[in-house]
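Data card: per-record layout.
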Amino acid sequence: MQTNPRTLLPVVLLGLAGALSPAAAQQVTPAPASADPAKKTAAIPVVNSAGARTGEETVVLSPFTVSSEADRGYQALNTLSGTRLNSKLEDLGASITVVTKQQMQDLAMVDLNDVFLYEANTEGTGNYTQFTPNRNGGIIDGTANDPATANRIRGVGSPISGSGVNIAVGNFSSNNKIPMDPYNIDAVEISRGPNSNLFGLGAAAGTVNLVPSKATLNRMSTSTSVRLDDWGGHRFTIDFNRPLISDMLAVRFSAVDESKGFTRKPAEEKIRRYFGAIQARPFRQTTINASFEHYNNFYRRPNSVTPRDTTYEWRNSGRPTFDPTTQMVTFADGRTAGPFPQTNENTTLPPGLIAGNSYGRLNAWFDQGGLQFITQGRLGNVITSGTPSPFTANSNIRYIQTGTDIMRRKANPFPLFFAPAVADKSVYDWSNTNFVSANYGEDTSSTLRVEIEQVLYRSNAHLVAARAGHMYQKFSRFTRSMIDNTDTVIYIDVNSKLLDGRPNPNFLRPFVEAVGPFDNDRPEVFDTQNADLAYQYTPQNLPRWLSWIGTQRVAAHGEVNRNSSTTYTYGYWVSSDNSWVNRANRVAGNQLSQRFYLGDNQGYNVDFGPQTANNLNGTHTLNWFNNLTGRWTNEQISVDNLARASTTRSRNELRTLSATAQSYFFKDRLITTVGLRKDRRRERTSGQAAVNPATGLVTYDAYNVWSAWTDDATGPLGAATRESQRGETKTYGAVLRPLSWLNFYYNRSDSFYPQVVRYAMDLNGVLPNAKGEGKDYGISFSALQGKLSVKLNRYETLELGSRAGEIGTLGNRTFRLEGRPENNGIRDANGFYPWALNVAQGRFAAQGVNPSQSQLNSAVARIMGVTDDWMTTFLAAGNGQPQTNGLSDVVSEGYELEVTYNPTKNWRMKFTGAQQIAKDARIGSEQYDYWQSRLPVWTTAKDDQGRLWWNTIPALGGDTPETAYYNSLLSPYLFGVANVGKPRTQVRKYRWNAITNYTFTEGRLKNLSVGGAVRWEDKGSIGFYGAAPSSLPGTFRGVILELDPSKPVWDPARAYFDLSLGYRLRLFNDKVRTNLQLNVRDIFANGRLQAVGANPDGSIYAWRIVDPRKFIFSASFDL
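The structure for this 1119-residue chain is written out next.
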């Protein structure tokens, strides 16, 4: 629904006031509040009141522990995210929010995306759609692929993928693919912007630190909960804590069994987690904590955006169909046209039709009942000798498919356009049908954490404490991506016959085609050891002239991270020993593609999702055209899921030293924080998995052969490589407190993100690492005896040198055009280097000269217009090298407001608001600059017959270098950089959220709670109209190559409303505390489509599927 923020806010506030005024009249007199916490210094030790025993010395928590016992409603007072020490939030200049357990319970949160729905400048799957337009015209659905990382802070995400934030568990760096779950955490700390003290390395977006639950030494507890929702989801949790030796030893066990519900089916997500913890305090000043968590998640998630649609243009073009045997086209009104041979078919075929996707492949066709048969996508011409093969595809007898004009002419004249996604529910029911149901995956992880904390010395003036910790985390992700992101297109089977002339049983049925489906298995290991040493000096009886010096806190941190990952990729290939199979390399050709039919031949619409049982392993009958005998033949083939070559293992190590100092001056009127961190990283990769010619199958023997560490790199780029993996980051901030309740603050911090070493475009050095810079300043105050807390923050965040986005691959395409060898060691025959080498060799031969390698290289360099140093680096780089990447800069600035208010113990409120202006400041400019420097050479280089390399030499799959440059480099580049200087996708300048919960404490409504939330978001940028058509000479004249920043396309402002009702009671003679709770999220949502991507003509190419309201019932029981 569209709303006006100027009228909505007063209405909401009046409504809340009216709804809650009877409750206010029934409020009991609140207990006397404690003194304003702002007046107390945040000393390191925190008294554990629950652990104190009469007549015994008070147990003091170590400075490395934060307790949630002081949290009040939605207000938390302390955090570890500022300095790695227990610090008061008001003593830090950074923008940090702590989400309490109470808030998570009131709003029925179960993951980080739920948390991000209600906080300032945080976006998750509930209010942001993570998708990426692919350079080839597809849409990558990041939300469905990995919802745990489909989020961002301040409009900024990971400098690699473009989404996701740093995740820590108890200040240990954690794999952000493992989703948060509140069953074993006490709080969520959100630190916005780069944070050198926690992550000198990492995304500039920010860091989320999960505060894990621990075993409690002095409280026995048992709790369980059940949760159901109207989408078919259910969840069960259990948690119990047992002190074994009072105040000395305790154990805790928690578990969750969850099955998520979805409106689009078939879909599922089954999660099982269990968590065990132990706490030991063998001595009064010694604490040992250990925990282990196992996580398993099997998922078949639905699409979050609708597929692209080819049926609309096909219908409007007269519903043309194709006879593969005659190549004639017949329209619905009986007209015919043709024949249409394969040559230039995307130009000659009638509108609504395009070339098939699976030429040169065997194609498995699936119906709801399973596999129908395996067929060729295109036949081979008859030969008189040699070996026939079903993979030979050079005849005109072929399958074609429906398509749009944008698909046919994407490179030119539509480089900035994408084929529109379906919005017509009569074509695809986006409410109920999962379009990618053939895909599934499974994630598994195990995490072991051990920490020991020791107070070494404690007196009134001095405190020295140390800790050491180890976290070992194993994670594995298996995904079967049968329908790749770029494959999500609705086609109609327009082929009236099979290739052998028989009637096509699937004629006019809708389908989706998985052109190159792969299975991926990627195990990862995070192994971290760290240690901290903290010292606090609390002045005692200082001379008067030094009385302005207050508490001084210093901490040192050392850490070693050893991370490793291994990639295994599998696809379906023919594994039997048929005569046409390459037995020395069974995976050399294309793997099988798969076609999933989605309905009957009536209505040209999707009736059901793709077949979920799609395992092709086994023996099948292939009916194929033997192009030697000229006859169709049935042949038995075996199909197996075989490993793909060229995958690798990688390892990286990070060694960190950091120091922080927090100082209090002038009776805590001035508090400063300074941090310095040094990181040294190194990485290495294994050899590539390769095919064993004796078996024709991939062997992983090369995984045991490692390249040198990057800090041992030698050669022309050795020094640059070593330097790129080291960095120094810093944090400094100050809080000025002129009054006990009023703070002014300032904070600056930076970070850097060491990444895989890549060459600079000019081969003169390596690419710089991504880095982040952040600045925060503002005002905060507390009032009403600490019940009201307000913080207004102004921020500026820069992410520089990000490698996210599709623009990154264009540099590698450029080097391929220059003639680099691919992974198999073979260069494109007509790349620039092979062409220039041939010319140079011819000239030496004509002169009767037998050149040395150095002379030959210099001659080739002169022809190519490069230096000898460039040529040396280019030739020494190795197979698949040099590799590079496009770099991007993101700028975000704005304001953040956070207000928490607890009028009474039974009434809690929170308000967050934000202004966000996030823009793409630079995208891949170094690639364009490189092309401009090379074009004068590329376009004028001639051989000795006067033929230009640029437009007379066929290269790169038959295209001339000129065609390859315009279609494969410049066209996708123009789309990639079109958003420079403009707001990032879906950025909404303003947002605010208000949440509240009130519990009646007397009268007929006693123990009843009522609450809810209102979330409002400003209009969001989803694209721009095109600027004036290009006046450049050549093929791009008249084409829209730029976007007009003065003509944005907006998604309208929207408001969302949540409701919660709860009732507390006691069962079994008051022994079991019970809470029954109903949450309704998005009360007025009926399910709809929301535009998230617009073409330069204003048409929508990407639609987000917004699910209807969700009813969540939960019951918790505490003993």
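Known properties of this structure: Residues 5-25 form the longest helix (21 residues). The radius of gyration is 32 Å.

See the next section for split statistics.
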